TrEMBL record:
Source domain of life: Bacteria
Single GO term (MF): oxidoreductase activity
Span of domain Thioredoxin: 13-162
UniProt xrefs under PROSITE patterns: THIOREDOXIN_1, THIOREDOXIN_2
Name listed for the protein in its UniProt record: Thioredoxin-like protein
Record key words, sorted: Redox-active center
Alphabetized InterPro entries for the sequence: AhpC/TSA, Thioredoxin-like_sf, Thioredoxin_CS, Thioredoxin_domain, Thioredoxin_ResA/DsbE_sf
CDD domains: TlpA_like_family (cd02966)
Organism the protein comes from: Chryseobacterium defluvii
Listed PANTHER family: THIOL:DISULFIDE INTERCHANGE PROTEIN DSBE, THIOREDOXIN-LIKE PROTEIN HI_1115
Amino acid sequence: MKNLIYIAFLFLCFIGLKGQQSAVPSVKYEELEKRIQQEGDKLLVVNFWSTTCAPCVKELPHFMEVNNHYKENPKYKMLLVSLDRLVDKERVIKFIKNKNLTAEVILLDDIKRMNTWIPKFEKNWDGNIPVTIFYKNGEKMHFNDGEMSKEELENTISKYLP
């Protein structure tokens, strides 16, 4: 009986953690670019954000609501790219848990070269965040500079998702 209670406890803990990351990988620009290419014919929603950016934090609940709606669709994927500093990685992990972020989060540890990689994502991107870029087959389909409402996000996704 004691073992059964222990197994049930472990199961409930697992269910509570399901969908949340306990670690955040840090990548350089080239790794992120490769990752975007690898998603193939999925609609990949890539959101650049930071825990210290008020508009980013404000839009994330909408992103999670929309992500939870589409996440079972095999032709859809959301990737949250944190631009927080590498030394703040623990804060990002704590933020993921506190805000119940269900999309995959990576930390882009390449701030020193941002003037090189920002124009590779979008020539008109001035470096401000939040920014959301939509990709399919590695090709940029849509660029959104600034905060997105739930409706804007849903409308853009429905435009490109079969």
